[in-house]
Amino acid sequence: MVSARLTMSGVCGASLRVFVFTFCGVLLSSEAQTPSPAPVPCALKSNTSCSDCLQNVACLWCEPTKLCLDYPVGKILPPRSVCPLNDARWGVCWVNFQILIITVSVVAGVIIIGAFVCCLCCCKCEKVGNKRDDAKLERQTRMRKARQKEKRTEMQLRHDEIRTKYGLAKGNPYARMDDH
Questions:
Q1: How do residues 129-176 score in pLDDT, each as one tens digit?
Q2: 147 by DSSP, 3-state: which?
Q3: Cβ–Cβ contacts within 10 Å for residue 107, how many?
Q4: Distance of CA 131 to the CA centre of its chain
Q5: Which of 3, 22, 120, 160 is such that its CA lies 20 to 30 A from the CA of 14?
Q6: Pairing state of beta strands 92-96 and 88-90?
C-alpha cells in the first residue's frame, strides 16, 4: 500500500511537472509570436515553414502537405479532410491537435477529480464537526437534566416540609381527619 502511494505520487508529480513545463512553453512561445500588422492570407504561406505560417493566428499548418490553411472557425477542431489531427498545428509548431486534446482532457479530468475529492473531504470534515457538536449538545442535555432532577428533589423536599408543618403528610392521608 505504501509503495503504491509512493509510485502514484511519483507519477502524479512527474505528470504535473510535464504539464507545467508544457504550459510554460506554450505561454513563452505564444508571447514570442505576435501577429503582424497586416496579416498575409494563409494560402500565400504554403510551402514555407510552420513558424512562418503560424505567425498569423488565423492560420493552420498541415505538416505532411506543407500547406498553410485558413483555420475552419465554424468547427472546433479541423476536419480530417482538411488535415489529420496528429499533423495539424495551430498556435505553436511543436504541439499537434491530438496531443492538445489529450492534454486538455487529462488536465480537465484531474481538475474534476480534485474538486470531487475536495468536496468529499469537506463533507467528511463537516460530519466530524457535527459529531463533535452532537456530543457537546448531549453533554449539555445530560447536565441540564441532572440540574432539573436536583431542583425537582429540592422542591419535593420543600413541599414535604410544608405538608408536615400543616399536617398534610403524604404517608397517611386520613391523619388530618383523625385529629379533629
A1: 677 778 889 999 999 999 999 999 999 999 988 888 887 766 665 555
A2: helix
A3: 14
A4: 24
A5: 120
A6: antiparallel
CA angle (156, 159, 164) in 5-degree steps: 125
50-82 as b/e, with b when 16 or more CB fall inside 10 Å?
Answer: beebbebeebbbbeeeebbbebeeeeeebeeeb
Q: How distant, in Å, are the alpha carbons of 127, 141, 142, 147, 156 from that of 138? A: 16, 5, 6, 14, 27
pTM above 0.90, yes or no: no
Residues with Cβ < 8 Å from 103, sequence gap 6 or more?
A: 19, 22
* Cα–Cα distance, 42 to 37 (Å, whole number): 14
pLDDT tens by residue, 23-70: 555 555 554 455 545 667 888 888 888 888 888 888 888 988 888 988
- CB of 29 closer than 8 Å to CB of 92: yes
